[in-house]
Amino acid sequence: MPSAAAPRPHPVRSRLAPYRRLFAEPGTGAFTAGSMLARLPMGMFTVSAVIMIASARGSYALAGAVTATGLAATAVVGPLTARLIDRYGQSRIALPATLIAAGGAVSLAACVRFGAPDWTLFASYAATATTPNTGGMSRARWAHLFRHDSGPRHTANSFEQAADELCFMTGPPVAAVLCTQLLPESGTLTAAGLLLLGMLIFLRERRTEPPVTARAAGGRPAPLRLPALAPLLASFLCIGAVFGSMEIATIAFAGDRGQQAAAGVVLAFHAAGSAVAGLLVGTVRPPSGPLVRRFALCVCVMALLALVSFAAASTGSLVLLAAALLVAGMGTAPAMVTGMTLIQETVPPVRLNEGMTWAVTALLTGIAGGSAAAGWTAEHLPGQAPFALPPAAAVLAAAAASSAALRFAWARRTERRAGLPKVPLRG
């Protein structure tokens, strides 16, 4: 009798197998839940602050400048906080830093509510710069758990990127509804509460926390001293400018049409496209070849898709803009997943949180610059001028990523000719 054929695996279950492997590890579900709650304010703080300040003070330029100042402060304070986390551990540093950040958010809402001078808005929002890089800490936990297996690390990076995007997808509409339907300050206050609650849950899970590792004297250079990191950080800077200018341009676009509450929903389409793409990336085996070359290709695709948003904005339709942002968002996750994996391959493990925070710092610096530029453009230039900024920044990001790929190719050629040690970028 011929043996019965083995049952074929269910296609959906087969696709989800890499994610089931991740969450089979004890404690991963708990720290992921806390991480998601703590990251949700990332998608709320800027939108809440812009709507709150613009409603109370009547100026998008002021709102953009305040949020840009806070993000610029994060560019300075964030790496210092990450360095302390690498040196002393997540549990000892992240909670005090979170308390300071939440206090800054509450202070901002109070200053707006009670008509405090403009300088107090800048000072209060700057205090939120101590917000720990929750995504970086979460990625560091995955990197520690699967330090000997690159497959789950790829899936974990894809999941974390999707988690970031889901928070950005959920945060803006929640913030917009809270600020427009309740009180203008309610979005900021809710975000501060979620940040504190999520961090408490995240830090309570101690089993997955990476141990503090003693550094070999002189053997672990600071991330910024790695030559390979400069073009990567330049790419993240320009990608951040895409996000920042897109956010402010969309809010102003909706506000000009008397539909400010819809801005968060429209922005959510961009995050949704990236989240879906990120989850799909995590289910496929990464292609062979140099990782930096894949990064350059992904950023070039992102730049092409960013042009769609400018074309849609020129029609004046919020519906078409939302559809265009959905398409443009699909180019974001592959670039970010590949870029973060590249950072992990480049930075020494004992400086991993600091290295990833520098990437996020570059991203936030770009967001700050993009926000300020789009805010000024929306205030002083007519029509859809702010939507020219995202594709322009995306083209610069593609140029920086291509520069990194060319540098890598030249270094490989030099290695083959002279037998020199390999550069740290590798696939």
Short account of what is shown:
Residues 228-427 form the Major facilitator superfamily (MFS) profile domain. The chain is an all-alpha fold and 427 residues long.
Structure overview:
It holds the Pfam family MFS_1. InterPro entries: MFS, MFS_dom, MFS_trans_sf. It is a multi-pass membrane protein. Keywords: Membrane, Transmembrane, Transmembrane helix. Its main location: membrane. With 427 residues, this protein is mainly α. The chain has one domain (27-211, 222-418): Growth Hormone, Chain: A. It contains 16 helices and no strands. It has helices spanning 11-23, 28-39, 45-57, 60-88, 90-113, 118-127, 134-145, 150-181, 186-204, 229-256, 263-281, 291-313, 318-329, 332-346, 352-380, 389-418. Helix 3 runs antiparallel to helix 9, helix 4 runs antiparallel to helix 5 (90-113) and helix 12 runs antiparallel to helix 14 (332-346). The longest helix has 32 residues, at 150-181. The termini are far apart. The model is unreliable at 419-427 (pLDDT under 50).
